[in-house]
Amino acid sequence: MKKNILILCITLFLYGCNANKHTNEHTNKHQVPPIVLVKPSVSIMSTEEKNKLNALIYGLNMTIKRYDNIYKAKDTQTVANDIKRYNKFHNWIFNDPAQIQKQKELIDAFSYAYDFIDDKRKKLASHKYKSTEQYIKDSFHFFHNEEYRKSHTYDPSWYGRTKNDFANYINVYFLGIIMQSISRTNEHATSEEIFQVMKEELQNKESYTYQNSLALWKD
């Protein structure tokens, strides 16, 4: 029953100063070597990490972008509050360079799902998609505008066919992450608390999200 909730939600829809020049002669004879300040090492993301982060952000942003359409039966103010909370969280973690370590933690948590989706991409004939991010992007076919839909072919079997011809398991996965970390957390939860819930939901293969989306993708 739970897995049908996620699928139904998707169906309803149809991110230095210069040195002093006046030094006396005594000082010139005994010059002290300049002090060199060594900046602490900054955590840098690898290309692989950036790709995973971009894919994660895209999936979350695309889901929240159409959240009001997905939840047509939900109270309008509740949906608006969920979107507001997500945007606040997004700015806190993804738009602040100081949060790179937390970004890396989300990347690590997302790695299993990302690799799973990437393996599915590679199994498509002739590697139809050159990047996992583009593969995820096209899975949101019905979330795009009409012009995009006309220029892109959609086959639900490419993205994990569900029991209907519109929803797919990639969409359902990202919707589950939003639902569990944003909609079902306390409305007063801080961004830090949302981060902890999202990280756990991403990395736990026994989570509600995973068990009702990617775990069901057998083809």
Structure characterization notes:
The protein has 219 residues and is mainly alpha-helical. It has one domain. Helix content is 58%, strand content 0%. The chain contains eleven helices and no strands. Helix 6 (100-123) packs parallel to helix 10. The longest helix is centred in the middle third of the chain and has 24 residues, at 100-123. It starts with a helix and ends in an 8-residue tail after the last helix. Residues 15-30 and 36-41 have low confidence and may be disordered. It comes from Borrelia duttonii CR2A. This is Mlp lipoprotein family protein.
User: Kindly, what is the distance between the CA atoms of the first and last residues, rounded to a whole number of angstroms?
Assistant: 21 Å
In oligomeric terms, what are we looking at?
single chain
Helix tally?
11
Taking Cα atoms only, what radius of gyration do you get, to the nearest Å?
23 Å
**What would the principal axes of the Cα set say about the shape?**
globular
Given the helix and strand composition, which structural class is it? mainly alpha
Average pLDDT level: 83
| Fraction of residues in H or I helices | 55-70%
Strand count, sense and barrel status of the largest sheet are: none
- DSSP summary, beta strand count: 0
Protein name: Mlp lipoprotein family protein
